[in-house]
Write a structure and sequence with these properties.
This protein has helices at 18-21, 36-53, 68-71, 80-84, 92-108, 128-141, 160-168, 193-203, 207-217, 222-229, 233-246, 252-261, and strands at residues 28-33, 56-61, 76-79, 114-119, 147-154, 172-177, 180-183. By secondary structure, it is an alpha/beta fold. It has two domains: 7-189, P-loop containing nucleotide triphosphate hydrolases (Rossmann fold, 3-Layer(aba) Sandwich); 193-269, Arc Repressor Mutant, subunit A (Orthogonal Bundle), CATH 1.10.10.
Length: 284
């Protein structure tokens, strides 16, 4: 019979996130996250939605994370490295066979379907194109079947061009905004060279430099930003100077122009001014 334990009682937050709860069977989703707490929240609520549907839930997870919270809720857990790199290199066939095998097992044990999440901690540049082809093909594999797949990507490991390619390979893309998971608008697939170049420059900044740049773009003066962030005026000036230098421009006006051009990526670079517990605080 389907498991009745609720994964949200083991790390994920309540009430349920409406976006994650709305993911239906036959959907291939990607999500970009920043912190380990965000990842646990994301996968926990995804699995909680699956449990409520009566799905068998499994997580192919990073090797260095504690599996007990979700395993204790009846979620099957597997090592991402062991699953994706069987034989020492990534091959799409074994992973597709795993999803099909687990779906058959779920249905044989009276589950409504399968909710499964995979992680990309193992992914290296040499396997990137093969993995993107696999991601695109999964849309066909799960079409019309009682299975939902959530693919998780650490934002810190993604370049701007990678983000666009990942989004295009999935039916739905998510990122966390103001403590809630949100659907990324389709305009993020904009792959114009100028937009990609601007996004690459903005994402080259440190989290603090991006934070200061966003506040400048909001119209705040240096003293106001210093007060807002609890830093000295001189520290803010240093961050402004570094941002301009790293972006390869000469003036703050040029930096703001690039930030505006890269605006489709702003949801993925969300910098919280007053981060609550569980969300990363940026150091000066």
């Amino acid at each position: 019979m389907p498991h009745t334990n609720d994964p949200t009682s083991h790390g994920a937050k309540s009430p349920y996130d409406v976006v994650l709860a709305a993911i239906c069977q036959g959907t291939h989703v990607c999500a970009f996250y920043e912190t380990e707490d965000d990842l646990i929240d994301l996968v926990g609520q995804f699995c909680a939605a699956g449990v409520r549907r009566g799905d068998l839930c499994l997580w192919v997870m990073p090797d260095d994370m504690n599996a007990e919270p979700l395993a204790g809720a009846g979620i099957e857990v597997y090592s991402a490295t062991d699953m994706y790199l069987r034989g020492g290199a990534f091959e799409a066939g074994p992973m597709i066979a795993l999803w099909e095998e687990k779906l058959a097992d779920a249905l044989a044990h009276n589950h409504a379907g399968l909710s499964a999440s995979g992680h990309t901690c193992w992914l290296q540049q040499r396997d990137w194109q093969a993995f993107m082809e696999y991601e695109r093909y999964l849309n066909q594999v799960i079409a019309g079947k009682p299975i939902s797949l959530l693919c998780t990507y650490p934002l810190s490991a993604c370049k701007a061009g990678d983000v666009f390619e990942v989004v295009r390979a999935h039916q739905v893309a998510l990122a966390k905004q103001q403590d809630h998971w949100s659907v990324i608008e389709s305009h993020l697939t904009d792959d114009r060279p100028a937009a990609l170049d601007a996004a690459s420059r903005v994402t080259s900044l440190s989290p603090r430099e991006r934070q200061v740049l966003l506040l400048v773009a909001d119209g705040m003066m240096t003293k106001g930003i210093a007060f807002e962030l609890g830093l000295s005026v001189r520290t803010i000036e240093v961050h402004r100077e570094r941002a301009i230098r790293r972006m390869g421009v000469r003036t703050m006006a040029e930096a703001i122009r690039l930030l505006t051009l890269a605006s489709p990526l702003v949801p993925l670079m969300d910098v919280r001014r007053n981060a609550p517990g569980g969300i990363r605080h940026f150091d000066a």
